[in-house]
Design a protein that fits this description.
Layout: H1 6-15, H2 18-33, E1 36-40, E2 42-46, H3 75-87, E3 92-96, H4 105-118, E4 123-126, H5 129-139, H6 143-153, E5 157-158, H7 168-174, H8 181-193, E6 197-204, H9 210-227, E7 230-237, H10 244-249, H11 255-268, E8 274-275, H12 279-282, H13 284-290, E9 297-300, H14 307-310, H15 321-330, E10 334-338, E11 344-345
Parallel strand pairs: 1-9, 1-10, 2-3, 3-4, 5-6, 6-7, 7-8
Antiparallel strand pairs: 10-11
Helix pairs in contact: 1-9, 1-11, 2-11, 3-4, 4-6, 5-6, 5-8, 8-9
The chain binds ligand V47 and iron/sulfur cluster.
Iron/sulfur cluster binds at residues 51, 53, 55, 58, 60-61, 98-99, 130.
């Protein structure tokens, strides 16, 4: 299939009958991955919810350290949570948190070093581009030095959070004090240049227009053309509870919009290996449909998730490996276990 232009993608997204759009995307997925659906035995570790920023969609963060629900886990707690997951076969730790006002950069380096020493085999997928930029600003060091030190401490991959909508006018509205879209892209480019792969996300279903969604995908596709450093793209479904953007927007977006977004992502991002159906946000039933609409990855067992659940997610907080594989098989598809670097395990 020839590469879609942004205007062709927009036209398909808006006007193609849903079943046709999903079938097209599924054909592209099957040409790449056959009936395989990738999944990971992982654990999310959200090490603190204290954050100096004020993203309007965030129900997770606390600005004040002494807020009743503020927390900041010690390295010992992080290690203990990691150990529990590894005892259950986890191959990936997905570690992200708020931008804490006090911790020095060495705190994050030590966290990774301790995890790597205690658990040499597990993949450490840690810190968003926004966290990396914050570490660089706070320690007054170039981003390349931050990335180099984290790599030496054991960083294996970078999660895709913090992208929101990369179009700056949307960012100025919903997360004006966050890194710019260009800074997010530059940080991912720098991580790719350091030899580490990353993921990319898009927070959708709020004030962004369809055009802005496609522009976001266009920016990701351009960067991937240059670096080939992305593993997967994860469309994140905006959850409106307990946050000010949600009060403005009202409802969570519907299933058709989610499936159209998955399908157009698969069709437009022709240089991305995987599109993820993040079941925590889509809900399990919609995620199953997404597996027939271009998604080739269901993400993971998760165990504990705080960011979307703070904003009203009704999905369970985790899944057993058996359950996740049964779900995939029940769709007539083949579960393939992977780690954060997409090494597979028969
Ligand atoms: O960066 C914040 C988003 C992200 C809300 O890389 C919200 O493999 C919905 O990035 N409703 C964190 N989303 C999640 C994330 C992620 C998840 C799974 C896999 C990977 C990966 C990355 O969640 C944040 C932000 O964009 N978020 N608030 C909300 N109310
Ligand atoms: Fe902080 Fe991330 Fe929440 Fe923004 S989305 S307020 S950066 S924790």
């Amino acid at each position: 299939m020839p590469r879609l232009s942004e205007s062709e993608a927009l036209d398909l997204f808006l006007n193609a009958p849903l079943a046709d759009l999903c079938a097209k995307a599924n054909a592209v997925k099957e040409a790449r991955h056959g009936k395989s659906i990738y999944w990971v035995n992982n654990r999310q570790i959200n090490y603190t919810n204290i954050c100096v920023l004020h993203c309007t969609f965030c129900a997770f963060s606390k600005i004040k350290k002494d807020s009743p629900h503020a927390y900041d886990w010690s390295h010992e707690v992080v290690l203990q949570k990691a150990g529990e997951a590894i005892a259950k076969g986890a191959r990936e730790l997905h570690i992200v948190g708020g931008l804490h006002p006090d911790h020095p950069f060495s705190y994050y380096v030590e966290m990774l070093k301790k995890l790597r020493a205690a658990y040499p085999l597990v993949n450490l997928k840690a810190f968003t581009a926004v966290e990396l930029c914050y570490f660089a600003k706070k320690s007054d060091r170039p981003l390349s030095a931050i990335i180099g030190e984290l790599k030496e401490a054991g960083l294996d991959a970078l999660p895709g959070g913090g992208a929101e909508i990369l179009v700056q006018s949307v960012r100025d509205d919903i997360c004006s004090d966050k890194e710019t879209g260009q800074e997010w892209l530059d940080a991912h480019r720098a991580v790719h240049e350091a030899g580490i792969h990353t993921n990319a996300t898009m927070l959708f279903g709020h004030i962004e227009t369809p055009e802005q969604r496609i522009q976001h995908l266009g920016m990701l596709r351009d960067l991937q053309d240059d670096t080939n450093g992305f593993y997967s793209f994860i469309p994140l479904v905006f959850h409106p509870e307990h946050n000010s953007l949600g009060r403005r927007v009202g409802q969570k977006t519907g299933e058709e919009d989610i499936l159209r977004t998955v399908a157009i992502s698969r069709l437009f991002l022709d240089n991305f290996p995987h599109i993820k159906a993040y079941w925590v946000q889509m809900g399990v039933s919609t995620a199953m449909k997404a597996l027939h609409a271009g998604a080739s990855d269901l993400d993971g067992t998760i165990i504990e998730e705080k960011i979307t659940h703070a904003a009203g997610a009704e999905s369970p907080v985790g899944m057993t490996p058996e359950h996740i594989q049964d779900l995939i098989r029940n769709e007539g598809l083949i579960p393939v276990e992977r780690d954060a670097k997409y090494e597979t395990y028969p």
